Amino acid sequence: MQMRHWDRRGDGGLTFTELGFGTAPLGNLYRAISDEEATAVLDAAWQYGIRYFDTAPLYGLGLAERRVGRFLARKKRGRLRGVDKSRPDNEGLPTR
Q1: Does residue 64 contact residue 27 with C-beta atoms inside 8 Å?
Q2: Per the confidence metrics, is the pTM higher than 0.85?
Q3: CA–CA separation, 21 and 51 (whole Å)
């Protein structure tokens, strides 16, 4: 299976793969996973064509973001999309 379909969202011209990857489990949401397991999961998603990654600072107090960031740092930017969420006032969020 390879993700080939990209949808346009809004008026800004951005396109997204039809399927995204929610990264909360990479922040140890359900159970603790190693960096190696996280990388293997991200590698599998990438191989299947996923280029839309959804993360947030509260997923493992930034752990998911760091893991995704390290993974994506090795990839060509091209048609990559990322979504990051935080509270408007950033109250209670980690600083790193």
Answers
A1: yes
A2: no
A3: 8
